[in-house]
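Page 37, continued from 36.
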């Protein structure tokens, strides 16, 4: 007779109970535990977000390349100018048009072109200021150019502001040119001139600040003579107006015209010192190429709009009536081309190899080679004549 324990051993082993799987349940049918699956999905999503942020950051950086880029490489130039064109065209299409143009479709084209070049000229003052701030230096930037630029925009601001705000000047203009004569100075002209004056002042102050004081503003003798002549005329002429009580020969309207001629003259010569400085240093490092690219873009589009407007209205008096202004646009473009040749062709290798600070540090020993030779010669003579008790001095 078998005992209960023996009967238990004689029974077949119990099979494991199989629970049917639910195909819709996320916790079954997978080799990975639920927490690992969640981590994989979260990491994948985080990686996509990081890639998207990096891509967005690169895109925004390229769009802002007129302000952030110092090299002016082809990719940043294309992206920066494209964003500028899109923003300017959008503003032009959304704002009121010039209804004096006969073609409706061309009114939109003219407005878009006008705002693109206005935006290009307005932004062109920022790259140099930002570059100086980032480098904490103004080496490579000509003080002559900066001072002339400041003086020119001071005259231009006084001219535009007087025509726009002064009832006396407006009345004198109508008396001379007729009661129906229209003053062409608009609010955007005044805003542009004052904006340029402020940023030109900031650039001059940067030269003083980063250069260690007012001594850093070293202006060459020819430019000093030019500035002295301009100040002399601008002081004597108002005195003559006061003495003659504003008679026909000397009056405030002609004084403003004189300021406009001063601005034109400065525009003819202000870039020459910077061209010479780049040649002397064999480099354009420290001179923002974006300033030139934006000025070149604005100048070309400004002339293009003027020619197209005249052709659309079949009236070229806008060109023939003011040839000086039309010619100055080409002078500015001519100097812009010189700077682009210097930056991209003549000194491209030097620009890639050297920063402005290191360049000047490398050039200093070359400039003082004769002085170093004399010092080494004196030191050698003293070493040859030293007494035996003195330690030997080795010049390295």
């Amino acid at each position: 007779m078998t005992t209960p324990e023996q009967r238990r051993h004689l029974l077949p082993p119990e099979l494991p109970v199989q629970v049917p799987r639910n195909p819709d349940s996320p916790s079954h049918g997978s080799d990975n535990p639920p927490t690992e699956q969640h981590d994989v999905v979260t990491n994948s999503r985080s990686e996509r977000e990081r890639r998207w942020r990096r891509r967005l950051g690169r895109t925004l950086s390229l769009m802002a390349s007129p302000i952030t880029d110092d090299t002016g490489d082809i990719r940043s130039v294309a992206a920066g100018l494209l964003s500028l064109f899109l923003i300017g065209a959008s503003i032009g299409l959304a704002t009121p048009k010039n209804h004096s143009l006969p073609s409706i479709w061309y009114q939109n084209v003219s407005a878009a072109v006008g705002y693109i070049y206005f935006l290009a000229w307005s932004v062109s003052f920022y790259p140099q200021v930002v570059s100086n701030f980032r480098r904490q230096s103004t080496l490579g930037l000509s003080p002559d150019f900066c001072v002339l630029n400041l003086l020119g925009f001071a005259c231009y601001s006084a001219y535009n502001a007087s025509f726009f705000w002064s009832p006396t000047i407006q009345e004198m203009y109508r008396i001379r040119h007729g009661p129906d004569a229209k003053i062409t100075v608009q609010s955007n002209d005044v805003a542009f001139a004052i904006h340029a004056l402020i940023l030109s002042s900031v650039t001059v102050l940067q030269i003083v600040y980063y250069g260690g004081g007012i001594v850093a503003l070293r202006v060459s003798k020819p430019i000093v003579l030019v500035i002295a002549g301009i100040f002399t005329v601008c002081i004597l002429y108002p005195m003559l107006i006061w003495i003659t009580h504003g008679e026909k020969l000397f009056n405030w309207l002609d004084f403003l015209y004189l300021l406009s001629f001063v601005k034109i003259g400065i525009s003819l010569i202000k870039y020459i010192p910077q061209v010479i400085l780049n040649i002397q240093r064999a480099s354009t490092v420290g001179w923002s190429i974006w300033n030139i690219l934006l000025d070149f873009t604005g100048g070309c589009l400004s002339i293009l709009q003027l020619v197209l407007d005249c052709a659309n209205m079949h009236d070229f008096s806008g060109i023939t009536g003011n040839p000086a202004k039309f010619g100055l646009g080409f002078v500015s473009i001519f100097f812009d081309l010189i700077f682009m040749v210097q930056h991209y062709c003549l000194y491209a290798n030097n620009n890639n190899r050297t920063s402005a600070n290191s360049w000047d540090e490398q050039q200093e020993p070359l400039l003082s080679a004769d002085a170093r030779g004399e010092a080494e010669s004196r030191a050698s003579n003293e070493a040859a004549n030293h007494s035996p008790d003195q330690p030997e001095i080795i010049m390295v």
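Residues 358 and 364 are 10 Å apart (CA to CA). Flag for discussion at group meeting. The radius of gyration is 36 Å.
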